[in-house]
Amino acid sequence: MRRLEGKRTIVTGAGSGIGRAIALRFAAEGARVALADVDEGAARKVAAEIGEGCLVQRTDVTVAEEVEGLVRLATERWGGLEVMVNNAGVGVAATAPQTSEEDFERVLAVNLRGTFLGMKYAIPAIRDSGGGAVINMSSIAALVGLKDRAAYSAAKGGILALTRAGAIDHIHEGVRVNCIAPGTVETPWISRITAGYADPEEARRRMRERQPHGRFVRPEEVAAMAAYLASDEAASVVGACMVVDGGVTAG
């Protein structure tokens, strides 16, 4: 399918995992993609997979000037912007008492502040381009309690609330704001999270088994939902939280 033909898009955290899968899916559906990541080398590898026509920009989503510069790069190069995917994120495995203040602030800065800054600078550009979509990456951690995810849950819950607020604020401007709530996705993030446990393999097994369908969610499955939300087929999807979790929240 080529549902995104010609749509000018930005994907943050595009160097690996879900962001990489979204960038590849968008490009395959005809979008022009700007790949942003704090790891520029990783983003350039994804750009090489896509081929010609994409942009790459090293971006720390916690820094307003860098996010503003990312949006400016895309709009100046392409003359506008239709889609912003706020995907960059980090997490720590800890309860509230176990979480350091530095870790808490970092998780909220990347996940929640990064999403806020992406919306702050992309929404006016999308509005001025005639409308489009903002897709934020929340999590099932915003919907159900997950063990050892205090800071992450707080950040992802904030993203869900920010999505709903943005949806109401900007739909009259032609900007649809939605979010995706994945379950546990097979990405490098799993290894980083489980590394803090005494038995990383046991922690990985528990994470896998909490999905009722018995496996990790694939990044490509989340990318498919993002492609739908970015497309004109989702014209009446506004302020939604689209769950892709293998059944975790069904119980």
UniProtKB/TrEMBL annotation:
User: Which positions make up the signal peptide?
Assistant: none
Residue ranges constituting the Ketoreductase domain according to the UniProt record: 7-171
Descriptive protein name:
Short-chain dehydrogenase/reductase SDR
Q: Does the keyword NAD apply?
A: yes
Q: Which family does it belong to?
A: Belongs to the short-chain dehydrogenases/reductases (SDR) family.
Q: Keywords in UniProt for this one? A: NAD, Oxidoreductase
Q: Which residue spans adopt a coiled-coil conformation according to this UniProt entry?
A: none
Gene Ontology molecular function, alphabetical: oxidoreductase activity
One Pfam family name is adh_short_C2
